[in-house]
Write a structure and sequence with these properties.
By secondary structure, the protein is of the alpha+beta class. The protein is built from two helices and five strands; from the N terminus they run αβββββα. Strands 4-3-2-1-5 form a five-stranded antiparallel sheet, with no helix packed on it. A hairpin with a 4-residue loop joins β2 and β3. The termini are far apart.
């Protein structure tokens, strides 16, 4: 009877330890920081971007900005900042905040990190992707250089065909 109780107790102990391990591993998988994020802060949850007075939620991959009288979450920056260069802009890593509303400290962040703020130099996590666009001329040729004029270049902008 004692051996049966010991076996049951061992099984219960084994099961509870496996459940505890499973619960711990659920919280380990955080969102990946964006390529334009500052290197060396892989555990950061939020960035504050002074130039646009907005936050970036790394886990949710969303910007948080104030507009129309409330704080909004979006995958994109608001329209007035759609051309803002996130690679060259400074990002303040908020290591000391772990809630869901980083804007609760906005008044302090706005004063401490004014527009144009530059702290210590930052490297980005990844490289900027360069998009190469081919220009197509009126004739449907895939040539972007129209400067080749003269003999032997018929159809390239010299008016002779």
């Amino acid at each position: 009877m004692k051996t049966l109780k010991l076996i049951v107790a061992g099984i219960i102990l084994l099961v509870t330890s496996q459940v505890a391990q499973a619960q711990v591993s659920v919280n380990v998988n955080l969102g990946n920081p964006p390529a334009w994020g500052p290197a060396g802060y892989s555990a950061a949850e939020y960035y504050y971007i002074p130039d646009v007075q907005a936050y970036y939620d790394v886990r949710a991959t969303q910007f948080i900005y104030f507009g129309n009288g409330k704080w909004n979450r979006s995958r994109n920056l608001p329209n007035q900042y759609r051309n803002y260069d996130l690679y060259n802009g400074y990002k303040v890593v908020l290591n000391d905040y772990h809630g869901s509303r980083p804007y609760a400290n906005f008044k302090n962040h706005k004063v401490k990190y004014r527009k144009g703020y530059k702290g210590s130099p930052q490297r980005n996590i990844g490289a900027r992707k360069v998009i190469i666009r081919k220009e197509v001329n009126n004739r449907g040729n895939n040539h972007s250089d129209h400067s080749k004029k003269g003999k032997g270049n018929k159809g390239h902008g010299n008016g002779k065909q």
